[in-house]
Each structure stands twice: as C-alpha cells, then as structure tokens.
Amino acid sequence: MSNSQLKTREASDLTSTETTRGGVYFTPRVDILEGDGELKLVADVPGATPEGVDLRYENGELILHCKVAERVMSGTMLVNEYAQGDFYRAFTIHESIDHAHIEASCKNGVLTVHLPKAAAAQPKQIQVKAS
Predict the structure, then answer these.
(1) How far is C-alpha 98 from the geometric centre of its chain's CA atoms?
(2) Per-residue confidence band for 95, with pLDDT thresholds at 50, 70 and 90
(3) Which helix (H) or strand (E) holds 38?
(4) Does the residue 17 lie in any domain?
(5) How far apart are CA 65 and CA 54, in angstroms?
(6) DSSP code per residue over 55-81
(7) Taking the complete model, does pTM exceed 0.70, yes or no?
(8) Nearest to 25 by CA among 43, 45, 10
(9) 51: CATH
(10) What domain range is 38 assigned to?
C-alpha cells in the first residue's frame, strides 16, 4: 500500500468523544515505535494514574482503558479547554508479539507499553563462513 493510499486521520477524529460505552471516553493519541526486539506504544492519557489503567490482551487485541478521577477545582473557571473523561482504545496485535511478556508503565499521564517480539519474529544474524 503506497502512502497515497493511506487515509490520514483528522485531529478532530482523535479528540472526539465516544459515548457508546455509557460515559464519556476519549481516544488517546498514540505513537508506536519499532525496534529490533520490540514495539513500543506511547499513549497520552492526561490525568491517568497507574492504578486507573486497565490494560489487557484478549483474543489478539490489546485493550486500553484508563479511568481518570474527576478534577477538584477551587475558584472561578475563567477558561475551560480541557474536557474530562476516561480513555479507551483497542489495537489488533500480530501473532509475532510475545503477549506473555508485555510490560507497561504510566508516569505523568504518559502510558508506555513494551510489546516484545517473539523469538521467531526477531531478526537473526547469520554468520557467513569462508569455504
């Protein structure tokens, strides 16, 4: 598939809310990086804490659900640009990922998920011998 065939998601698509789950859910913005031994997923989930993150691998999907506690504000709100709600997103995971060794951490509203590649899927250096 060439770049011209790829559909670019609009920023408004990423920040829109979804209400079919019975509440307000936001789609977190995500970067996915590939290294030799793993994929690394970095998701922006402002307001989320490690205790509020529910990350599961089920039937070939990585499901991310972050509960965000309601902010308690004192004073008069002058500008309100930050909507509140939980985060939800699901990713299809290829069988080359070793799902038994997925690890994650959450710090300052950034969730980092390490998805190690299975040994069979990792590149292997083949030594060439002189004949």
Answers:
(1) 17
(2) confident
(3) strand 38-44
(4) no
(5) 5
(6) EEEETTEEEEEE--PPP---S--S---
(7) yes
(8) 45
(9) 2.60.40.790
(10) 26-70+84-117
